[in-house]
Design goal:
Length: about 280
């Protein structure tokens, strides 16, 4: 998630956190370190409202000890007058846009070490001639430098390479591959035995653990997928809005438009009711 940046006037930028709360009154924020769940010490926890919009904001520069390396935080604002709390939020500090000035400074320190010539090229840089055919003299120069480099390298001669090469008659590769004990045929036999290996089956039993019987990996994967759908539904319900419509409660997706669940609401006598204060139970429609 991207956050607006707050210029402290000293060349540093810190993100501003926002939330929607009732308008008017006062609001405060609580910040938590997600690495250990501890409450973060703040210079100021007071939040400010933008006009009368109900949009409240707080500058992360109010963290007493601002992180210098990437760290994750959770936060929540509370309207002091009504007690209404905002949806929890999460932000990463000390690792992305809020410390880009630090990274830029480090890069500048390195580039300041470069020396430039009168044509704005780095002094140690060699500028190549692009898309231009070499002259006769340039070709001679390249040839001379190449000969000098090869002489300095002193590569082995063909006679030396032949002397260091094992004759093909000594490879005995075919006999090695056909060896009954460790050749390809023996390897194929071992591979074929894996499917029926008692030891392998025992290892799979250990991996599955106690309580598992005939469950396959596919069955386990399918079960996890089903649970994932249920968790997604819970997540959508918790993020979306709940609306009472007559004697029903409708729960919407996080977009606030798509209905997910509808419940009839009853009082303690089992009669449909429209007064939320008398709701005794809900029954899915």
């Amino acid at each position: 998630m991207r956050y607006p940046l707050y210029n402290l006037g000293d060349g540093t930028l810190k993100p501003i956190l926002t939330a929607v709360l009732p308008t008017g009154g006062t609001a405060t924020i609580a910040v938590y370190d997600l690495s250990n769940g501890s409450s973060v010490t703040l210079t100021s926890a007071s939040c400010s409202e933008i006009g009368s919009t109900g949009i409240w904001y707080w500058a992360s520069s109010n963290i007493t000890t601002y992180p210098t390396t990437m760290k994750q935080y959770a936060y929540q604002m509370t309207h002091s007058t009504t007690g209404v709390k905002s949806s929890p939020g999460k932000i990463v500090l000390g690792g992305y846009t809020d410390n880009v000035d630090v990274q830029s400074s480090l890069i500048k320190t390195q580039t300041d070490k470069f020396g430039f010539d009168g044509s704005n090229y780095v002094s140690a840089r060699v500028k190549a001639t692009d898309n231009i055919a070499l002259s006769a003299q340039q070709k001679l120069d390249v040839n001379t430098e190449t000969d000098t480099a090869l002489t300095d390298y002193d590569p082995p001669t063909n006679t030396e390479m032949v002397a260091r090469t094992i004759p093909s008659a000594n490879y005995a590769l075919e006999a090695t591959l056909n060896n009954a004990t460790y050749g390809l045929s023996a390897l194929q036999t071992l591979i074929d035995a894996i499917d029926t290996s008692t030891e392998l089956q025992n290892r799979f039993t250990e991996i599955k653990g106690a309580g598992w019987t005939n469950e396959t990996l596919k069955a386990i994967k399918d079960l996890v997928a089903i649970q994932g759908v249920k968790i997604d539904l819970i997540h959508q319900v918790e993020k979306g809005k709940w609306v009472r419509a007559g004697s029903q409660i409708i729960m919407y997706d996080s977009d606030g438009v798509t209905p997910l669940l509808t419940f009839n609401i009853y009082d303690e006598n089992g009669v449909l009711c429209t007064n939320i204060a008398n709701v005794f139970k809900r029954v899915p429609v």
